[in-house]
Amino acid sequence: MIVLSEDSQRTSGRDAQSMNITAGKAVAEAVRTTLGPKGMDKMLVDSSGGVVVTNDGVTILKEMDIDHPAANMIVEVSETQEDEVGDGTTTAVVIAGELLDQAEELLESEIHATTVAQGYRQAAEKAKEILEEEAIDVGEDDRETLVEIASTAMTGKGAESAKDLLAELVVDAVLAVADEDGIDTENVSVEKVVGGSIDNSELIEGVIVDKERVDENMPYMVEDANVVAFDGALEVKETEIDAEVNVTDPDQLQQFLDQEEKQLKEMVDKLVDVGADAVFVGDGIDDMAQHYLAKEGILAVRRAKSSDLKRIARSTGARVVSNLDDLEEDDLGFAGSVAQKDIGGDERIFVEDVEDAKSVTLVLRGGTEHVVDEVERAIEDSLGVVRTTLEDGKVLPGGGAPETELALELRDFADSVGGREQLAVEAFADSLEIIPRTLAENAGLDPIDSLVDLRSRHDGGEFDAGLDAYTGDVINMEDEGVVEPLRVKTQAIESATEAAVMILRIDDVIAAGDLSGGQVGDDDEDDDMPGGGMGGMGGMGGMGGMGGAM
Prior knowledge:
By secondary structure, this protein is an alpha+beta fold. The chain is 46% helix and 15% strand. The protein has 17 helices and 18 strands.
């Protein structure tokens, strides 16, 4: 009996598992060489000749043209890691790939996929417990550790040559935007400028608006400026409905024009009365209003983005007003300087010298566009880890130290796990050692020697012992200042385990119709095939058009 259409394909049992595992391992292998301080970069070229050169795992995987659905599940691991922590994307993907590799051997030994999945989950839970017990506490005032964390996140990326300066700038930026509501790194704006060297990067205590003053007669710079953020238009108000004005003689026309001019003059007078020195307007500014503003010596910017207005308000202490009649002195913000400056050949408005600014701007410089883009990616990772550290207050040593310790402790833990799950826990422990092994390989060291040294030191109770990729020695990572947030490791292990388990539980790949309406797992929770799990299976005949629901 034929159930599926003739041109569709179906892959079942071990073939399906093997195909999915191979796809997941291939993705992990693609980014494995980028891991660590001596990781290599990838060049991604699109069909139109656009080029991205990066060491950042999530960027590589996002930009890669991946068709296979299981491979896309591994890509999602890196995206989750990026959203939750900001760094550790390559680590998470490499662990996921190794978990699949180890699981394949267990499956070939006739151990059922659900048994492997159960063992992996138990091992992941135990691993998180161990890491939380071993984590080092960090306080908000421990600036030195925060700088080390920011610096570690940049190591091996394009920004490494100036990581000391950039790490200081990142910590200053995150501490500046922290408030009682938490830390939102969206309040740290990043401006990229091609020209100069990375060492010329700086932190502006305020906001840079990619606009120019609207009138040449306005001042280039206003010091000790009262700032207005107005989300409206300095133009004559139009009627809500279509209306006509019939003019029968020239005097009436002049009266009409005079009335319009009077309205504009009153708007400007309102700004003068409250003491405004710089005005940022979300909409347009009438030519006549520009003239009056310039006459009063007020610097004005029109069509400022709403995000810019919010950042100006947050930085200067102003309040965004949408009705000029409601504007009062209390709504004004203050900046030591509002000036139009040339930066990288573009004129922009700098709102700076703000005391206790809650919105700041990092100006990143670099010799070429590719360099500046890569510095920006490194800075984003760095901002994420500093924020995470301040939120959680816990860090771990780097250099493969946590993974080596986990592998040792999980092997001990496996003895207490009954049944075949014990083998899965041991496989999980072996999988984690892929991190120190990869660090050694990427540094040109002998991975076996490095692993033996690491295990020996950890057996002796040295939790902080990690691999120095530059010398090949096993050293104390905490003393060396190589530290990462606890959440980088726990999230990587959690995401990698979940993705590996999901892939292992798939034993049938079936051609489907339109899955756009389905949700992941919205039927029976025991379904092995997640809804929409077969996005874009390019190489599988009738499954080529199934990308919609991934």
